[in-house]
Amino acid sequence: LDDAQQDGDRIYAIIKGVGTATGGRVESCDPDQDAYHRSIERTIREAGAKPESVSYLETHGSGVAGEDALEADTLSALFGASESPNPCYIGSAKADVGHTGAVAGLASLIKAALCLDQQLLPPLRNLQTMRYDWVRGKRTFIAPAAAQYWLRNRADGPRRALVAGLGVDGTCSHVLLEGVESKAGRAFRHFSDRPLGALDEGLFALEACDVNGLLEKIDRLREFVAMAPGKGIEQLAVRWFREVGSTPDSKLCLAVVASNRSELLDQLEFAAQSMQQNPAGILGSNGGSLSTQLRDRVFYSPDPLGSQGQLAFVFPGSGNHFAGMGRELSARWPAVYDSQDAASRFLARQYLPEQFWKEHLAETLHDNHNALVIGQVALGTALSDLVRSFGVEPHAVSGYSLGESAGLFSFGAWRDRDGMSQRLSESSLFTEELAGECKAARKVWGLNKRDKVDWSLGIVDAPADKVKQALAGRDKAYLLIINTHRECVIGGDRRQVEELAREVNGHFFPLRGVTTVHCEIARPVAKSYRDLHVFPVTAPENITFYSCALGKSYQVTTDSAADVILGQALDTVDYTNVIEQAYADGVRIFLEMGPGNSCSRMIGSILDGRPHMARAACYPGQKPTSLILRLLAHCLAERVPVNLSALYPDSLEIAEEPVGPRIKTMIGGKAFVLPALPKQKLKNEKPGRGTR
User: Fold this and answer.
1) Following DSSP, what letter does each residue of 600-661 receive, concatenated?
2) 168 CB contacts (<8 Å, ≥6 apart)?
3) Phi then psi for 153, rounded to 5 degrees?
């Protein structure tokens, strides 16, 4: 193994154990359950492994009812018997290539080896529901609905996959594969630039010193589109970037994100007409307009903000979680997650893919506040790392409520994410005190143990002054957060909160997944709350951190970070003060790193009418990769430095589209094309005559 690595050879996986058994039911070609179980036991025993260390099952999955029932029953019973909190994923190559007969096991072996090599889990295609019951013990079995990074807890050892195969003679065979690890416990990775294949959108940047220069670039790109070979839009974007390069010192930039050539030409036509009719205006200010579908894909600023002010990363508060958040991005750019894997021993416990990387969230998740906290913090760090990998670096960091913790972790001021995860699991703060039974509220309100705390909170469209006036005489309702100059978050006893909302004549939008903080309820647990947030600090250089509690920037130390986070838990947060102060300090561009676009929406309202840019990197209802491309394009238009070489590196291959009706699939991010079969002359075929 060492020699192979030194020679630069590519090692996909290590075979750790092999087991076979025959049930003696050859006549019916029906595998025997005892034989199947013996084969797995031999494989595990030979590998010296434990069932809980296996996190991927590449099943036979033939679609034959008897075989599928055998696999589901045996595999789930054996691998689900442990108390492991780590999920086990399920797949079958037959969902992609069909049943290949005698080489079906080889296809599964290759697939599992590639999964370990790329550290990615592909979807189990064409699956609607699981036919058989895989629920065993506390372990969760998941058939991935979409491609995702293979998250693991590095402390549990290397990634392992069991490959299962059944022969027509009743033979059961199993192989246990293990990912290649260095002596330091790091996985050897071979990520391709596009592990899921080419992007279905391309980013085109046209840079110049003046409008006339941009118009010339538009004409040049039109000609380029007409002449460039290939059909894929990303191929075209890569060719264009390699043709014109990058000129970050240019004053102006027109940036376009398109999904096909026709769309790109429509966008260029719109931009050219707008610039010709109103050279000093924004696109469309002359009355022209794009379709709704294309409107957020053409970016240009005649007076770019990047040359006027600073850029801030903002991190949202809790309650913005949604199904699948971050999943596609983890597979598109797995190196970001791989880097975090090297720095964390329990990364899967932070992202909790079994909770969040699903098509639909479980109803119980909204009340699992520990999961919501650590999951959202983890996603914030991933988005921050991803955007920064393209050369976008902020001058400032601001967090809304929970977002302050996400910001500290994202920029390395706090580094012990494993420690935070462990503290949360051991603490009763978000299970009993500030959520669940809400013991802290019971204590503050003087209730006895029999009285239930019926806590409710949500957004009300009313200004803070009006809410404060209506609070008079209500001892169990609170103004928690001032979102904007016209919107607040209120919370407390349900009856009093509903009365408060009616009195201010505001529409009340209830929120879920948020604990009882930002008011006096947190005072009984103030020490525990502060202790939860005491970590050694390594303050990054040239980054200004803002505090919700102070409404301004502060110097980050171990004590000051814990103090400001406790401060915002104990009293009303005025988010308008934070954003107004950041704007006064010169921040003009706000990029939201976290699930949802709540901060971007609020910042847009707070700074309404003033030059600024507020944009979110990840929210539901939009293609995740497209949001990243559009964020980069918007930054380019505002002349924020963006390293397009990171998006379109020299190593990115430009594959030509195959000609003719060939079968194409993706292996390791590259197109694998089966050549057309040569026509064979049959023995009874006569020259010039057709053959029946």
Assistant:
1) HHHHHHHTTTSS-EEEES--TTS-HHHHHHHHHHHHHHTT----HHHHS-TT---PPPPPSS
2) 29
3) -100, 110
Unique residue bearing structure tokens 């010709």: 276
Q: Which of 323, 320, 417 is nearest to 374 (CA)?
A: 417
Burial of 64 (0-12, 13-18, 19+ CB in 10 A): middle
Cβ(636)–Cβ(255) below 8 Å? yes
How high is the pLDDT of residue 192? 79
SS3 of 345-391: the string is CCCHHHHCHHHHCCCCCCHHHHHCHHHHHHHHHHHHHHHHHHHHCCC
Count other C-beta atoms under 10 Å from residue 402's C-beta: 25
Q: Where are the beta strands (DSSP E) in 217-341?
A: 252-258, 298-300, 310-315
In this structure, what DSSP letter does residue 154 have?
G
**138, 134, 139, 90: which is closest to 115 by C-alpha?**
90
In contact, 254 and 280? CB cutoff 8 Å: no
What is the CA angle 169-175-180, rounded to 5? 160
Q: Which of 205, 199, 201, 194 is nearest to 240 (CA)?
A: 205
Sheet of 88-91, strands arranged across = 14-22, 171-178, 160-166, 56-58, 88-91, 141-142
Alpha helices in 150-255 (DSSP H): 211-227, 233-244
Burial class (CB in 10 A: 0-12, 13-18, 19+), 197: middle
Separation between Cα atoms, residue 327 and residue 624, nearest integer Å: 9
Displacement of CA 207 from its chain's centroid (Å)? 31
Amino acid at 388: R
Reported as type and span, the H/E element at residue 66 is: helix 65-79
In whole angstroms, give the CA distance from residue 618 to residue 597: 7
- Helix (H) / strand (E) element for 481: namely strand 477-484
DSSP-derived letter for residue 429 is I
What is the pLDDT at residue 278? 86
Buried b (16+ CB within 10 A) or exposed e, 208-236: beebeebbebbeebeebbeeeeeebbbbb
Give the integer Cα–Cα distance in Å for 381 and 158: 23
Q: What is the sign of the dihedral through the CA atoms of 600, 601, 606 and 608?
A: positive
pLDDT at 474: 95
* CA distance linking residue 338 with residue 233, whole number of Å: 28
Phi then psi for residue 200, to 5 deg, are -90, 10
Interval 263-314: pLDDT, tens: 999 999 999 999 998 888 888 665 556 666 677 999 999 999 998 999 999 9
Task: Enumerate residues 6+ apart whose C-beta is below 8 A from 178.
Answer: 13, 14, 15, 16, 47, 116, 158, 159, 160
Contact present, 80 and 55 (Cβ < 8 Å): no
pLDDT tens digits for range 13-61: 899 999 888 865 444 445 678 888 889 999 999 999 999 999 999 999 8
- CA 157 to CA 511: how far, in whole Å? 39
What end-to-end distance do the CA atoms of the chain give, in Å? 55
φ, ψ at 508 (rounded to 5°): -105, 125
Three-state SS sequence of 29-43: CCCCHHHHHHHHHHH
Task: Say which amino acid occupies 348.
Answer: A
What stretch of H or E contains 583? helix 575-584
